[in-house]
Every structure is written in C-alpha cells, then in structure tokens.
Amino acid sequence: MSTIQHQVEFQPDFATLRVQLAPGQSVFAEPSAMATMSTNIKLVSSMRGGLGAAVSRAFSGESFVMNTFTAEGGPGEVWFAPGPMGDMRHVELHGNRIVLQRGAFVACSEGVEVKAKWEGLKGFFSGEGLVLQQASGTGDLWFNTFGAILEIDVLGEYIVDTGCIVAFEDTLSYRVTTMPRPNGGGMLKTFLFGGEGLVCRFSGMGRLWVQTRGIGPFLGWVHPFRPVEKRG
After folding, report:
1. 5-10-15 Cα angle (round to 5)
2. How far apart are CA 72 and CA 138, in angstroms?
3. Which of 14, 15, 73, 76 has its CA 20 to 30 A from that of 33?
4. 170 with 134: CB under 8 angstroms?
C-alpha cells in the first residue's frame, strides 16, 4: 500500500498528480510544480537534506531548494502539474534505488532522498550533461515524462535511444554507444549519417521506463514554424 493517498489524473497527455495528505503528513516537490492546494496546507521552502544535498540536486539539473507541503489541522490536498506534456508514474521504494534523467523528478514522500548521481563520460542522457539523479530510501516517488511511458522489464540486454530514457532501476548497468549498421557500416558512419545518434545498451535485470517522445526531435520539428522577424 502507498504511504500517501494519491491519484494521477489526465493521463497520458497532461498527467497531473493529486496528493491527499493526512493531518501532519508531508510531501516534497520541486518549486513551481504546485498547481492548487487546500488552505490548510503549509508550504515551506528549504534546502532539504542540508547544503550538500541542495548542491547535489542543483548539480543534477533540479532546483537548489525543495518545497515541503504539510497538512495542518486536518487533511488536505495538493495538485502538482509538471512542465512537460506527458505521462507520470508512481514507484514505491523499499530500500531500492531508481536513477532518473534530469528534470524527471516531480515529488516524493518522507523517507526518500533525491541526489545527483555522477555517471562520468557515459551520462549523456538527452544531451543534458554528465549527471543524473538517484532516488533512494523508503517511500513514494513520482516522476514525469515527455509523451507516454513504456515500461520494459529487461532481462539480458536492451537498447534505447538516449533521448527516450526516463528512469531505470540501478540493478541495470549500461554503456553509451552508437548503433552499428547490419550492412557493415561502422559506428562513426552510423553516428554521422544514420540519424540514430547515441543509444544506451542496458544489461542485467531490472525495470526501465522509456518516453515515447524526445525533446530534441520535438524542438527540431517546431523550429521551422517559429516566428522570424523580417528586416527591411
């Protein structure tokens, strides 16, 4: 059973999280994620976990501070509406760890810690940099995607475009590479001319969450339609 009552509404295109808090119960979320809340909800912004944890979150692409929403004097509710147009998932952590791409975190309950995870030169997810996020502990975790979500149980090996990865269990290992062509084309040729770019080859056993849209291709599709100032 979930430690916090909640519902994910309006899936899969505009998923929104509704959290129902018991008196004294708290939920933690990124600043600007809150859409509406009851009048008895107390909002406090702080560096949750101290300065080190706050710097770690900022380094992984999230906010330096985190908002705490607590129901006071009775039950209350909070609605969270993340930025990307897409779906949302809830995962209960029981001492296991989930690795998230930057920007995927929405909210968590007490007992869950979210911090940066240094991945070295292989952390090229979505071209966002070398640092991912890691959620660990015991409690509730919610994360969002751009597009719908595919949940894949990996047993052995699996290949995913780097821009489509949302989250994965840390029981999976991975390496970043390019897709070689079956006709003998090399990795460099595929990267330059094949249109596939970087992919992630996962191995091991664990769950993988993949989004059905990539932000990079979407921006490329929108670019020709942008308003352009005409100069005389």
Report:
1. 75
2. 23
3. 73
4. yes
Q: What is the pLDDT of residues 137-170, one digit of tens each?
A: 999 999 999 888 999 999 999 999 888 899 999 9
Strand order across the beta sheet in which 76-80 lies: 5-9, 16-21, 76-80, 34-37
- Supply the pTM of this predicted model: 0.78
Q: Which CATH architecture has domain 5-223?
A: 4-Layer Sandwich (3.60)
Please state, in angstroms and rounded to a whole number, the distance separating the CA atoms of residues 75 and 41: 9
DSSP string, 69-102: EEE-SS-EEEEE--SSSB-EEEEEEEEEEEEE-T
- Confidence check: pLDDT of 232 > 70: no
Q: Using 50, 70 and 90 to split pLDDT, how confident is the model at 42?
A: very high
| φ, ψ of residue 229 in degrees (nearest 5) | -70, 130
Category of 217 on φ-ψ map: left (φ > 0), alpha (ψ -120 to 50) or beta: alpha
- CA-based R_g, the chain, Å: 19
Q: Where are the beta strands (DSSP E) in 63-197?
A: 66-71, 76-80, 88-100, 105-109, 112-118, 131-144, 149-161, 165-169, 172-178
**Cα-to-chain-centroid distance, residue 200:** 17
Q: Which of 177, 175, 100, 106 is CA-nearest to residue 133?
A: 100
Would you place residue 61 in the very low, low, confident or very high pLDDT band (cuts 50, 70, 90)? Answer: low
pLDDT level of residue 1 (50, 70, 90 thresholds): very low
Q: Residue 84: how many CA atoms within 13 Å on its side-chain side?
A: 25
